[in-house]
Amino acid sequence: MSEARQDILLGIRRSLKRGRLDMVREAELREQIASHRRNLVPARAAALGDRGRVDLFVAMAEEVQATVTRVSSPVAVLEEVARYLVAENLPAEIVLAPDPSLDDLPWDERPLLRIRRGRAEAGDAVSLTPCFATIAETGTLMLISGAATPTTLNFLPDTHIVLVHADQVVAAYEDGWDRLRSAGAMPRVVNFITGPSRTGDIEQRIELGAHGPRRLHIILINDRRIAGDGEDK
Amino acid sequence: MRATSHTFEANARTGLANPILQRALALMQSGFPERRRFAVERLPEFEALRDVGKSIKDHTLEYLDFYLELFEENVVAGDGRVHWARTADEARAAVLQICRSVDAKIVTKGKSMIAEEIGLNEYLEQNGITPVETDLGEYIIQLRHEPPSHLIAPAIHLMKEQVADTFRAEHRALEPGRSLVEARQLCDEARAVLRPQFLAADVGITGANFLVAETGSSIIVTNEGNGDLTQTLPPVHIVMASLEKLVPTLEDAATLLRLLARSATGQEFSTYTTVSTGPRRPDDLDGPEQYHVVLLDNGRSALLGGEFQDMLRCIRCSACMNHCPVYAAVGGHAYGWVYSGPMGAVLTPSLIGVAEAGHLPNASTFCGQCESVCPVKIPLPKLMRHWRGRQFTGKLNPPVYRAGLCLWAWLARRPTLYHALVELASRTLGWLAGDRGRFRTLPLAAGWTAVRDLPAPEGRSFHSLWVERQKAGSRQ
């Protein structure tokens, strides 16, 4: 144990006018943590039904200059990718997250689209990734790192395209934590991404594309029995 | 860095006389406060969240030793390392030792106030390592060899023309005749210049907005994405954090994140909120191979349990300075060290001593705006008052000032005499002012009358009017 560590802990206890916590109190605090008790969660998204939640996610994401296209099935995804690249005058060349969920897309129907699977390298212009969940409250994407989802894809290319399934849209950050905990261990990185990169450091004028992607395009797939079935609360 | 807080009065005069700074500050006043108000009005739970935020921080501070140990336990379990540093010296040494262990030449840096506090850049340079700031504002002031003038917008004291001049002077490899008129062009240039540095860096250093005990994670919040490139690309990631950044759980972090962006820039959520837990996993394709957290005390543990403990709740949002009339008049550099505005006026004397920074808690109108916008309800005016008290008991004010205070205190403790004198003084002043009702000049009050008229008392004191009114009321 380092001397600095010991000194700091002793200093804290001296200031708080007590010794080390007893085992009972420590156990209580550990239990409190393990209960994952939520603090106050705003009603904005929590009070919505499935469709309202997806609509809120889209509205909030668009408010921060993300673009969103809704498609009705995974088959339509590549059509939308191709349309977007042409519309934004981008090269037909993308680096893909090596994620099995993306392998199911009909890539061979798009011979003009050059794809590479892996992490992003300097010079990659466009990336395409899945996401772990999205947060309706603020239009936020929740991405996690892993063998199939390298983090560089989220930051190095100028354009980041993200596939979102409608049933991935949750109300609040706390719902994201719950999903993460039930998925297993804490990943190395959780990225919450709300719109494309920006800065206000020069005269407080917001400019997009400071260091991360200039464009964030979300393709929202309404492929589950979640949208349009009129069962909103 | 060497503090110039003791020359606050001169610094403030310099700030007031600087037309560029005054234009920049005017821009700030019409920006941050307005956007914050809009964001707060949009979230009905905001006020209630402030109370929750306060109680999360209070709880954590009450058990800080426990949460720090738990945090360390979880960092170590995730193959990271924690370096405890009592002082700035120890923190700098820890960073240097990690850099040397990988023979680092270039270190990229996300924004870290702790790194500013310990003067890390200067130290790394002295030891042959090149630190490169990557937050646009921090990069600009690094090129200009200036300290930050604001918590979240370090170059807020500059207009785009100064930035253009700086870039022209420093980016000598670029075409000298290029256009640098728009903010857009400046951002693009910084992006292009810094991208190779991100890729070449051997170590990436970031700050931390929060540390999560439950998972051993560090959280950074940025808008540019510079922090993420800084911590993802190089083989080593060092997190610089002070003790009070701890929160118990991810749920607690979520609550404080809801308060942070709204209070800071008026955003619903910052563009990038990144939760990092340990180094690259065996099957990861990217990410750092080493993850270090340097935990800095530097006087904070001594604030626990005392009258300044409340200050340790601070989440560095900058709302207090964005709403401060003093900050808006003189700018952040006048405060003479790393932290400015009301939070700086309380924290700076705690960290570098009230003898050096005694002017700062006096540079306040006590309007109370800072406290009313603070997301974790730090009673900043009260804490400034504590510093004034300590200055007095420590005999740190000038003798004339102290004599004046003693005289006033002597009077204030004798209400009958006090009221009689106030009544006499106000009648005399009222009579002297005559029909004009104000004074252009007045002996002993030149500090006031040099720049504005002093309105004359109308002849009666508030106290005597109040007494009269109470009597009239009780008769009815």
Short summary of the structure?
The complex is a heterodimer of chains A (233) and B (476). Chain A has 233 residues and is an alpha/beta fold.
Task: Write up what this structure looks like.
- The complex is a heterodimer of chains A (about 230) and B (about 475).
- The N and C termini of chain A lie far apart (about 55 Å).
- A six-stranded parallel sheet of chain A has the order 1-12-7-4-2-3, sandwiched between helices. Chain A has a four-stranded mixed sheet with strand order 8-5-6-9. Chain A has a two-stranded antiparallel ribbon with strand order 10-11.
- Chain A has helices spanning about 5-15, 25-35, 45, 50-65, 75-85, 100-105, 175-185; strands at about 65-70, 95, 115, 125-130, 135, 140-145, 160-165, 170, 190-195, 200, 205-210, 215-220.
- Chain A has two domains: about 1-35, no CATH class; about 45-220, NagB/RpiA/CoA transferase-like (Rossmann fold), CATH 3.40.50.
- Chain A is built from seven helices and twelve strands.
- Chain A is elongated and about 70 Å long.
- With about 230 residues, chain A is of the alpha/beta class.
- With about 475 residues, chain B is α/β, with parallel strands linked by helices.
- Chain B folds into three domains: about 45-300, Rossmann fold (3-Layer(aba) Sandwich); about 320-400, no CATH class; about 415-475, no CATH class.
- Chain B is about 50% helix and about 10% strand.
- A six-stranded parallel sheet of chain B has the order 1-10-7-4-2-3, with helices on both faces. In chain B, strands 8-5-6-9 form a four-stranded mixed sheet.
- In chain B, β5 and β6 (about 215-220) form a beta hairpin.
- The longest helix of chain B is centred in the N-terminal third of the chain and has 24 residues, at about 20-40.
- The N and C termini of chain B lie far apart (about 65 Å).
- At the A-B interface, α1, α2, α7, β9 and β10 of A face α2, α3, α4, α8 and α10 of B.
- β9 of chain A pairs antiparallel with β9 of chain B, so a sheet runs across the interface.
